[in-house]
Amino acid sequence: MLYANHPKVQHFLTLWHENGRASFKRRYRNLDYDAEAYRKFARDRKKYIALDDGPSGIFLVDRQTEEVWSIKAYGVPKRTLGTLDALIATYTEANEQNRMIHPN
Predict the structure, then answer these.
(1) What proportions of the chain, in percent to the nearest 5, are helix, strand and coil?
(2) Per the domain annotation, does 64 fall within a domain?
(3) Which residues contact residue 22 at a Cβ distance below 8 angstroms, ignoring those fewer than 6 apart?
(4) What are phi and psi of 55, to 5 degrees?
(5) Alpha-carbon gap, residue 32 to 14, rounded angstroms
(6) Residue 101 phi/psi, 5° resolution?
């Protein structure tokens, strides 16, 4: 079973955070991305791990299947986006190509 502090979850949070860096730097040349951008973090829930961007919920990860969902309301899954491993691969590739992914 997956938990919020699992290395795979933490790795995805890092990739997701880095994915917004180039866009932020183009828009805000005088600001520090790591200080100004919303912090990405994971919270354990009963069935899911909630992946949040600052105060906003963005993803839910099923703790048993590692299926990742977009959300329609905080804590309510909307549609499946694939597995956590697949999203890690997608964000890794996008970061290498300096391409921004819009989660929803």
Answers:
(1) 35, 30, 35
(2) yes
(3) 98, 100
(4) -85, -5
(5) 16
(6) -110, 130
For residue 39, the model assigns a pLDDT of 86
Residue 50: the pLDDT is: 96
User: For residues 21 and 33, is the Cβ–Cβ distance under 8 A?
Assistant: yes
Is residue 104 a part of any domain in this protein?
no
Place of tokens 């993803």: 59
> Which residues, 6+ apart, have CB-to-CB distance to 10 below 8 Å?
42
pTM for the structure as a whole: 0.90
Residue 27 vs residue 68, higher pLDDT: 68
Q: Which of 71, 81, 95 lies closest to 23 in space, CA to CA?
A: 95
What is the pLDDT at residue 96?
Answer: 94
Is the residue at 102 inside a domain? no
Domain that holds residue 70: 7-96
